[in-house]
């Protein structure tokens, strides 16, 4: 998806997706610390990550969430497991894989979306509409996508006496990142949230346990009965 959107941007504007984002989004709004292709001047600010271990992933492939498609996706090539700290990776423009950002910048980005600063408000509403859903071939989990975002409310449901209840409203949209990072916006409660980590985890392919605990704590303050 990232390659397709990036090519559309390039053909229409003549700019790569990283160039377009910096020129028309990041530098126009509070100088957001978000890069798709980190410039040389910013490389020293990027924290090294503790990469996913190829051996751990292979040993874990017997679990239901790992299938042949997942192994191919994460290990061919296995750059997400041990190549993410190289300058070559960080300075490449891989629209769906190697964005670099601070948690604050991601939260601000989603807040700008919510405020209508980046897109018309009628388009923001479409970001909450289900466009496609089904069992994903890689994760073996049910996924829902809107226009360019993942809908996460069903992934954060909690069991109750009346069955599963959603922690966040269904209008919430965002996306998890490989290894555990996660950002989203909740239009109903006017909340933008971001969690980033340098300790990549292979325990989940959707909402990381660490991010999940933070999100549950956040909504427990808003909705004490959850």
Question: Major sheet: order of its strands?
Answer: 7-8-9
Largest sheet: 3 strands, antiparallel
- Shape designation: globular
Ranges where pLDDT stays below 50 over 5 or more residues in a row are 57-64
What's the total number of strands?
Answer: 9
Helical stretch tally: 9
Radius of gyration: 18 Å
Structural class comes to: alpha+beta
What separation lies between the terminal Cα atoms?
A: 35 Å
Beta fraction of the residues? 15-25%
Query: What value does the average pLDDT take?
Result: 83
Order of helices and strands: HHEHHHHEHHEEEEEEEH
The helix fraction, in percent, is 25-40%
Give an overview of the whole structure.
The protein has 226 residues and is of the alpha+beta class. Helices cover 34% and strands 16% of the residues. It contains nine helices and nine strands. The strands form four sheets. Strands 7-8-9 form a three-stranded antiparallel beta sheet, with helices on one face. A two-stranded antiparallel ribbon has the order 1-2. A two-stranded antiparallel sheet has the order 3-4. A hairpin with a 5-residue loop joins strand 7 and strand 8.
Short description:
Helices cover 34% and strands 16% of the residues. The protein has helices at 2-13, 17-24, 54-59, 68-75, 79-82, 87-91, 103-115, 121-126, 209-222; strands at residues 34-36, 99-101, 132-135, 142-145, 157-160, 163-166, 173-176, 182-186, 191-195. The strands form 4 sheets. It has a 3-stranded antiparallel β-sheet with strand order 7-8-9, covered by helices on one side. Strands 1-2 form a two-stranded antiparallel sheet.
């Amino acid at each position: 998806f990232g390659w397709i959107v990036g090519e559309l941007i390039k053909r229409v504007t003549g700019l790569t997706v990283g160039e377009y984002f910096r020129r028309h989004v990041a530098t126009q709004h509070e100088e957001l610390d978000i890069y798709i292709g980190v410039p040389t001047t910013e490389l020293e600010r990027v924290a090294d990550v503790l990469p996913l271990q190829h051996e751990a992933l292979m040993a874990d492939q017997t679990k239901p969430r790992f299938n042949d498609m997942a192994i191919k996706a994460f290990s061919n090539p296995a750059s997400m497991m041990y190549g993410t700290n190289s300058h070559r990776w960080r300075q490449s423009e891989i629209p769906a894989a190697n964005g670099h950002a601070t948690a604050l910048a991601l939260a601000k980005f989603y807040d700008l979306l919510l405020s209508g600063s980046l897109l018309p408000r009628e388009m923001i509403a479409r970001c909450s509409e289900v466009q496609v859903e089904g069992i994903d071939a890689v994760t073996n989990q049910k996924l829902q996508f809107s226009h360019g975002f993942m809908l996460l409310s069903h992934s954060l449901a909690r069991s109750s006496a009346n069955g599963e209840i959603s922690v966040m409203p269904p209008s919430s949209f965002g996306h998890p990142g490989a290894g555990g990072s996660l950002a989203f916006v909740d239009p109903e409660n006017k909340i933008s949230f971001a969690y980033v980590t340098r300790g990549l985890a292979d325990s989940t392919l959707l909402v990381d346990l660490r991010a999940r605990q933070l999100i549950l704590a956040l909504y427990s303050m808003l909705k004490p009965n959850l």
